[in-house]
Specification:
It comes from Streptococcus dysgalactiae subsp. dysgalactiae. Keywords: DNA-binding, Transcription, Transcription regulation. This is Sugar-binding transcriptional regulator. Residues 61-314 form the Sugar-binding domain. The protein is α/β, with parallel strands linked by helices. It folds into two domains: 2-46, Arc Repressor Mutant, subunit A; 59-323, Rossmann fold, CATH 3.40.50. It has helices spanning 2-18, 23-30, 34-46, 59-72, 88-106, 119-126, 154-164, 181-188, 194-199, 228-236, 257-260, 268-272, 287-296, 306-315, and strands at residues 76-80, 112-115, 137-140, 168-169, 205-209, 241-243, 246-248, 276-280, 301-305. The strands form two sheets. Strands 1-9-8-5-2-3-4 form a seven-stranded parallel beta sheet, with helices on both faces. The chain has a two-stranded antiparallel sheet with strand order 6-7. Helix 5 (88-106) crosses helix 6 and helix 13 (287-296) crosses helix 14 (306-315). The relative contact order is 0.13.
Length: 326
């Protein structure tokens, strides 16, 4: 009887997986309920009669994605595999290609898109293929860099992204960090800034990078705007990273109010209310920043590489890596 049962499970599995017949058709041919067919297919996998292999892809990576997605309440997570021979530039390119596909399939007609800037997002836009959309609007999420780093200026990236989606764009004519809060206040309250300011509460989608600890000016595209006193204060308040040029601590809380008051950019609170915020980041040195952003709920889509994600998990005291499927 047991062998007959296994033979029946095997037959149902053969009809479904090999011959490609639907569960409804199998139920009619074998005169059994469709729900029974469904249970039999599940049992066939459970007992090892059916073993599914995904050729050329790492199934464990998909399992890790699902674990992390659920752990941090993400709507979507894409992990890019690392190869031994990969350089940081290779990893950035691979992550950018995946992020470009995520963006391309996420943007909808009529979307208001907020865009940050920097080398990572520039790389993502490099990989984006044109897609004819209707009524897409692209807005800046932060002011621009100094003239030294004009290559990754937010206006350049906004213009490029709007062209890719056949949309329109708004530009920002101010550096992200001002000398004092009065200058910042004056810009934000100015007539030309009204539409940008209003857009931050109306966004459908945001595309951002994640910056690591403020240890070195040389590793950043914009931190030459910070003073020695700024760096000292960020260190004292234990800043671990930034999103949209807004620094935060390991809990994801904003730090250094004096700098926040001089920053022209969407707040972390506002960013957390955007329905879809896609963050793209790579590099173990950003692990603390990524973890903080995840725990604070600032982002709900993440694209990164496996090694970076494992570095993030290793920092999380609530996770036992031995229980994570690698």
């Amino acid at each position: 009887m047991k062998e007959e049962r296994r033979r029946l499970l095997a037959k149902v599995a053969y009809l479904h997986y090999v011959q490609g017949k639907s569960q409804t058709l199998i139920s009619k041919e074998m005169n059994i309920y469709r729900t029974t067919v469904c249970r039999m297919l599940a049992k066939a996998k459970e007992e090892g009669i059916v073993r599914i292999e995904i050729a050329d892809y790492d199934a464990d990576l998909f399992a890790l994605e699902e674990y992390v997605r659920q752990q941090y309440g993400l709507e979507k997570l894409d992990l890019v595999p690392n190869q031994v021979e990969d350089t940081p530039a290779d990893t950035l390119t691979n992550v950018s290609k995946t992020a470009a596909e995520v963006v391309r399939h996420t943007v909808k007609d009529g979307d208001k898109i907020g865009l940050s800037w920097g080398a990572t997002l520039s790389s993502v836009i490099d990989e984006l293929d044109p897609k004819a959309m209707k009524d897409v609007l692209v807005y800046p999420l932060a002011g621009g860099p100094s003239h030294i780093n004009a290559k990754y200026h937010v206006n350049t990236l906004i213009y490029r992204l709007a062209r890719i989606f056949h949309g329109n764009s708004a530009f920002i004519n101010a550096m992200v960090i001002q000398e004092d809060k009065q200058l910042t206040k004056g810009i934000i309250q100015s007539k030309y800034f009204e539409s940008i300011l209003a857009s931050w509460d109306q966004l459908d989608l945001a595309l951002v990078g994640i910056g690591g600890e403020p240890n070195s000016r040389e590793e950043s595209q914009w931190r030459d705007l910070l003073t020695d006193a700024d760096y000292a204060q960020l260190k004292q308040e234990e800043a671990v990273g930034e999103v949209c040029c807004r620094f935060f601590d390991q809990a994801g809380h904003p730090v250094y109010k004096g700098l926040q008051d001089r920053t022209i950019g969407i707040s972390l609170e506002q960013l957390g209310r955007v329905p879809k915020t896609i963050a793209v980041a790579t590099g173990k040195y950003k692990a603390k920043a990524i973890l903080a952003a995840l725990k604070a709920g600032v982002i709900n889509y993440l694209v990164t590489d496996k090694e970076t994600m494992l570095a993030v998990l290793a920092l999380d005291e609530d996770i036992d890596l031995n229980n994570v499927l690698l």
